[in-house]
Amino acid sequence: MPSDNSTSHSLTLANVSKTYPSGLDALAPINFSLYPGEFVSLVGPSGCGKSTMLRLVAGLTEPTRGKAYLGSGTTKIGFVFQDPTLMPWATVSENIQLPLKLSNMLEPGLKEHVATVLDWVGLTDFRDVYPRELSGGMKMRASIARALIIQPDLLLLDEPFAALDEFTRAQLNEDLLHLWQQEKWTSIFVTHSIREAVFLSNRILVMSPRPGRIIADVPVRFDHPRDPGLRNSHAYNDLCADIASRLAVHMNGEER
Amino acid sequence: MSRILWPLAFGLALLGVWETLIIMYEVPPYILPGPSDVAASLWNDGPSLLKSLAVTLQVTLAALVLACISGAGIAILLEQSKTLERILFPYAVFLQVTPIVTIAPFVIIWVDSVFVVLLILAWMAAVFPVISNTLLGLKSADRNLRDLFILYEANRTQTLRHLLIPSALPYFLGGLRISGGLALIGTVVAEMVAGTSGESSGLASRLLESSYRLELSRALACFVLLSITGFCIYAALNWLSDRLLRNWHESAFGNP
């Protein structure tokens, strides 16, 4: 992927669209830029091309037209899938080290580095355990740790908490936010939960049904650190309602 | 305990009925010997039969090891390119569906060493399940994990070593369990077709030889030894499979 040295953006999508060989239009032309350290959520109905957009940014699929430019400061990309996607034959610690192993970055301070990241996600006591012995929430923590171990400049998360129960999900939201404040990577977080998006993000991109395009670019101005009590505030609930109504307009338009 | 006790009791009861019927109807031993005759033959001819068993076992195990290595190797080769698979896989199928009895006469003419003749035929009988199962396993690696390996720019060797081979291991072991039985069957058939005789020949040749001479108790003793051997090979491969997979694969759980 070409890099874009002319701006201070972390990532720029210029007229990016995607049509599958079957003729299905997944993404209408999309334009947006991300500033370094931004936490941006993509919300939209299922099948609107959110995941396709993430895969485009990661270089796992090519755009049909347009281009995705990575900023000069963006060299390392982390990816967290909807499923934990751990190797069942490897321990938590081995799973987490995988990106380093593949990039031949098994440096001397590795042990401490792994220990630090395990501590971040609260899996220190589970380092030698195989994934099957972990709960859904812990598997996802391991998956996030694996993405963070390379200290990514850009972290892409594809509905990572969709399969988790409400309590685990809230807890992981808070922990992720805490880590982001500490490490300051740039995030694109795909979700279909508006409440989750508002709690986590600085900015929310609302997408239309397929072919996906961005119908609203909403700033979220709550101060950090955000505590769980934010979810009960009027301002938070008003913003959730505002985004829900923007989505609803387009959903209704689609069905008529 | 009753898992062993009941089948054993059932077997002994059957032998009892058999022995009783032989005595009641005065069946001559050249038509059907009783269990006691077979046991006597096992005892008297034991040393010489065990020598023959060693010959058979040597061929069987050599063929199995060869099938294991070459089968996995061929599967990895075929996985490298779709074109290669399309060209070569039909020949692997031919190898499987052609009865080895029909190939044996040619191999016997072309190859001098009896051991090598037997080895080739037993290998032909045993190799296909390893090839086809391993190939299936190599292709069944998790899609998201594959993406992860692409994202972290893993090279071919790394992908093979850290993703494809571990993914294929349970399938490979499943194939090997089938091949264990086939290697023995292949050896037995080959021995019978090759028509070797004397004490330095395998157990299947001894069986055939004894039956020609109407020494049915010795023929049955050979049969018993071959059955036990087949069972032991299966049990050993089962144990190996559980041992290699016990940390992570579903198939190894629930076995005490």
Please provide a written account of the structure.
With 256 residues, chain A is α/β, with parallel strands linked by helices. Chain A is built from seven helices and ten strands. Chain A is 36% helix and 23% strand. Chain A is globular and about 50 Å long. Chain B is an all-alpha fold and 256 residues long. Chain B is built from ten helices and no strands. The relative contact order of chain B is 0.13. At the A-B interface, helix 2 of A face helix 7 and helix 8 of B.
Quick summary of this structure?
Chain A is of the alpha/beta class. Helix content of chain A is 36%, strand content 23%.
SSE map:
The complex is a heterodimer of chains A (256) and B (256).
Chain A: E1 3-4, E2 11-19, E3 25-34, E4 39-43, H1 50-58, E5 65-71, E6 77-80, H2 92-102, H3 110-120, H4 136-148, E7 154-158, H5 166-183, E8 186-191, H6 194-200, E9 203-207, E10 214-219, H7 234-255
Parallel strand pairs in A: 1-5, 4-8, 4-9, 6-7, 7-8
Antiparallel strand pairs in A: 2-3, 2-5, 9-10
Chain B: H1 2-25, H2 35-44, H3 46-80, H4 82-97, H5 100-110, H6 114-139, H7 143-151, H8 156-194, H9 203-212, H10 216-245
CATH fold topology of the domain at 76-158 and 172-193 and 200-208 in chain A: Rossmann fold
Task: Write the H/E string of chain B, N to C.
Answer: HHHHHHHHHH
Which percent bin holds the helix content of chain A? 25-40%
Inertia-based shape of chain A:
globular
What is the assigned CATH homologous superfamily of the domain at 76-158 and 172-193 and 200-208 in chain A? Answer: P-loop containing nucleotide triphosphate hydrolases
Indicate the percent of residues in helices of chain B. over 70%
Q: Report the total helices of chain B.
A: 10
Give the class-level CATH name of the domain at 76-158 and 172-193 and 200-208 in chain A: Alpha Beta
Structural class estimated from helices and strands of chain B: mainly alpha
**Text of the CATH class of the domain at 88-244 in chain B:** Mainly Alpha
In whole angstroms, how far apart are the ends of chain B? 12 Å
Calculate Rg of chain A over CA atoms: 18 Å
What about the largest sheet of chain B? Answer: none
Query: What fold name stands as the CATH topology of the domain at 88-244 in chain B?
Result: MetI-like fold
